[in-house]
């Protein structure tokens, strides 16, 4: 190879190495920013900053042994989530709040969030409807049998929190038609109507994209991710009585539970 070609080849190889090294550093900084954002998010959600103001970037960098650039990227991630905002002359302040929803106890939303404000229900639809096959199977009724269908927008302190679609066997649901569903959890009404306590529930939790209807009702951006909780609740004797599909605004709720290891 002529000397000039060797020089060009070496130069090209050096440039490629420099680009690769830059990309690696950028990826590692992004990884560290996500890790720091997770730690700061936990601090925010658990009330570690009661005055609503986060420490200065330099203090965060020292506390978490991170660079200022990493701290800025982490705060950018939290700003994109709507948890914090930058205020001139003040610093980074908490502007969003998420409410805890436990997954280790069978409770209605008003019972779960009673310490955080008032839960109200806007009953958008309520009445008998033929049970789709998957609903009938879960509730152990013949396909096509009428069940009580309820659609509710649930608010906490006036802010939209969840959209609940509920199916209840009609022999029980009929007794709910005259009840105060706007201010009372269905769980309490089911126990009052049946005279029996609720026993257990099977739950599935996943993130789904908000459809146009759900986004409009929840006042969330179209296409935003929402938390979907599917819950089938049984009476203490094992009878399934309440199948719910609950779409929570992911920016206003956090799910938690206590798990025990058993092999």
Proportion of residues in β-strands = 25-35%
**Mean residue pLDDT:** 88
Provide the structure class. Answer: alpha+beta
Low confidence ranges:
none
Largest sheet: 6 strands, antiparallel
Radius of gyration: 26 Å
* Major sheet: arrangement of strands: 4-5-6-9-8-7
Distance between the termini: 65 Å
Report the principal-axis shape.
Answer: elongated
Task: Tell me roughly what share of residues is in helical segments.
Answer: 25-40%
Count up the helices.
Answer: 8
What is the number of strand segments?
10
**What's the helix-strand series?**
HHHEEEHEHEEHHEHEEE
Provide an overview of this structure.
- The strands form 3 sheets. This protein has a 6-stranded antiparallel sheet with strand order 4-5-6-9-8-7. A two-stranded antiparallel sheet has the order 1-2. A two-stranded parallel ribbon has the order 3-10.
- The radius of gyration is 26 Å and the shape is elongated.
- The longest helix is centred in the N-terminal third of the chain and has 43 residues.
- Helix 1 packs across helix 3 and helix 2 packs across helix 3.
- It is an alpha+beta fold.
- The mean pLDDT is 88.
